[in-house]
Amino acid sequence: MKRIIVGQSGGPTAVINSSVLGVYLQAKELGVEKIYGMVYGIEGFLDENIIDLDDYLSDENNIELLKRTPSAFLGSCRYKLPKYEDDKVVYEKIFKILDKYEIDALFYIGGNDSMDTIKMLSDYAKDNNKKQVFMGIPKTIDNDLPVTDHCPGYGSAAKYIATSLKEIIRDNSSFGVKKPTVCIVEIMGRHAGWLTAAASLAKDDTCEGVDAIYLPEIPFDINKFVKKVEKLSTEKKSIVFAVSEGITDKDGHFICELGSSEKKLDAFGHKQLSGCANTLATLIAAKTGLKTRAIELSTLQRAASHISSLTDVEEAIQVGRKAVEGANDGKTGMMVIMEREKTRNYTINYKLYDIHSIANVEKKVPREWICTKHNKMKEPFIRYVKPLIKGELSPIYKDGVPVHLVRK
Q: What whole-number distance in Å separates Cα of residue 31 and Cα of residue 20?
């Protein structure tokens, strides 16, 4: 390979830029002469919005800054590439640009929809005798990509959630009131409850943990929820729940949509989920008369690089490196996966896997890891997630606030 390009797509994470760095470092070691970045993903690529990463990463100080920079340094997009039988013009334009810049390999960092882009581009290249190769690099705080043990971005988001829940619990229990305040914390994740499950990590020797966790994998029963609140209100001075933005009732209706006829969709056609905590807080206040508080962690979960997991940072770099190794060996239409060894010590192996078994497939929390009776997570989940949040990478500060690397 002489020239390559890397892009980012979908919702950012605290470590998505570390995967860009992994691509860059491995390409440099292999002697790749030009490493481009596409600004705003494949959508920006179509406008030839392309930068030379040497302009930023040839400076060792910038490399350290990039590890600590949240969001997408290159810029992201939510552009859904059409099927090539529906719009061949788009594909012809993409490959014309690839040829113009003499690009041999394209790397795309993202989640389910981004892997679909890699699948379609690699299929088109194969069917039309194109020379370029295409590799997917996993990224999502939702942790819902199949096959891989977990996804870069998840560990840091889980660490932030566990830390924030401990702080919220501490705050909510500050007052010696006769009636408790019911605090409902809404956590991202859409249809998979991996992030909300991480709230279970708030429980330790210094914290009692949340009172219940509600995941989208289990239908939500409003009547049982109200009864649980009523029971806890006679026993405790503080009540804190962790709820997924995507919980639904037994008929599949999103709880966040109760009482609202407005249904917004994002660019990929997914429902925009938010407001679940507020809906439940309003309901509990009306049903019980208790004071309630709704907290929506929102983008803080994916932007908190000041508390990113060092394990997550290092793994994000390694998946970028592995993708470049694979492309250099001529592999295409694949995604890097992480495979956990079944040993006492946490060890990850990096492998390549056929993108066709990954794109548009959603991995959910195993039901056997969920205690439905008490709305808690079982020990297998705790063992699974704890290694992913280990270690810290301190920010680089200037005048008391963290410094980030930004495009010119």
A: 17
**Residue 372 domain-assigned?**
no
Amino acid 226 reads V
Number of domains the chain is built from: 2
- Residues 6+ positions from 345 with CB-CB distance below 8 Å: none
Same domain, 200 and 288: yes
User: What integer pLDDT is reported at residue 190 of this predicted model?
Assistant: 82
- Cite the active site residues: 142
Q: Which of 301, 387, 392, 304 is nearest to 338 (CA)?
A: 387
Note whether 62 and 74 are same-domain residues: yes
Instruction: Tell if the pTM clears 0.85, that is, is over it.
Output: yes
Gap between the Cα atoms of 291 and 271, Å rounded: 30
How far are the Cα atoms of 82, 125, 235 from residue 178, in angstroms, in the given order?
Answer: 58, 68, 10
pLDDT score, position 265: 46
Give strand pairing partners of 50. 38
DSSP 339-368: EE-SSSS--EEEEEEEGGGTTT------GG
Residues of the chain with pLDDT under 70: 259-274
